[in-house]
Amino acid sequence: MHSIGLYIHFPFCLRKCNYCDFPSFQGMDEWITPYINALCRELQEWKGKLTDYRVQTIYLGGGTPTLIPAEQIAYVLNLCTSIFHVEDDAEITIEANPGTVSKEQLSVLKDSGVNRLSIGLQAWQERHLKTLGRIHRNKDLLYSVDFARDAGLYNISIDVMFGLPGQTVDEWLETLYRVCMLGIEHVSTYSLKVEEGTLLYTWLNRGLISLPTQEEDRSMYYRGRDYLHQHGLEQYEISNFAVPGRECIHNLIYWNNGEYIGFGSGAHSFFNKERFSNYKGIKKYIDAVMTGSKRTEFRERIDEVNERFETIMLGLRLVKGISKKSFMERFGRDIYYYYGEAIKKLEEKNLLIDDGRQIRLTTRGMDVQNTVLLEFMGLN
Ligand code: SF4
Predict the structure, then answer these.
(1) Which residue puts its alpha carbon closest to atom 8 of ligand 1?
(2) Which among 44, 94, 108, 316 has most CB atoms closer than 10 A?
(3) Burial class (CB in 10 A: 0-12, 13-18, 19+), 298
């Protein structure tokens, strides 16, 4: 039996955030029920196709999945367990925004199998929440965590961002302080990327906002990393920190270049040596599923050369790096057969370490990961 993760996308949001370029939409609530119907049909179509697979994780992402009535989410999860072999201890995560959860709702979700909550806070200070276009106030985070604990959820992650317009190091550390004070199990930290097509991009181009310099951004990253470490959250991936044993198993599947299937609009999959994704538009996705026509807007066969490079690229994001044994089992030859030259060169520069079992980046190597990856490119 192989392991696999399932990702289920819910593309509805109360309001589009000013930095967001994810496949999520506001003002489409009347499409929730038709969307759930299409999602269930898509899940049904996989019946009998994963008989050799054990589902290790289910990730309900978005958008804002907690805008969907909990009973409908419970129905989708029940369907998953009736179609697939979902492990008894599978990690089942739901993403939530503060201000979109209630204790009753989280209790229903917990009863339906959800055992992990990922909350998007992004920043503690009201002025940053406003710039980002978030719908919530900072105190909503406190209620959300209380509701989750009351509902019996003891695996909570919070997403936060640094490198925000006008953000100081002290504000960034205050955000982390507020998060750590809640005693949660996992933190994801991201540097803000201003994507074309977003409101922040327009503001930036018009000179209405300015971003911290590269040095300030890096300084926030290092200070944040040290702060989280001092508060018991160990870094296990470039952007992710957890109480030992509470690492996100679903994301570890991605970083170990494992297989996953995405359901819903815009959802991506890596399965059977192919990467593919569904249509991003809600109506287009529903139409395609309900009429049984083509629903993927992207499909690519991954040959072995690419699969090896992707395994390196993703695995080196992890603090513990790439298991030499797993690499050998997967590709039939020692990692040195393909990448010996690059590994030796990087070891000499003190950017990479072979500890006998794992190939991993040094702290310095983590800082210049793109340069490191260039050494692996083109080798096969
Ligand atoms: S809540 Fe998340 S998905 Fe929705 S608009 Fe904001 S950032 Fe995008």
Answers:
(1) 20
(2) 94
(3) exposed
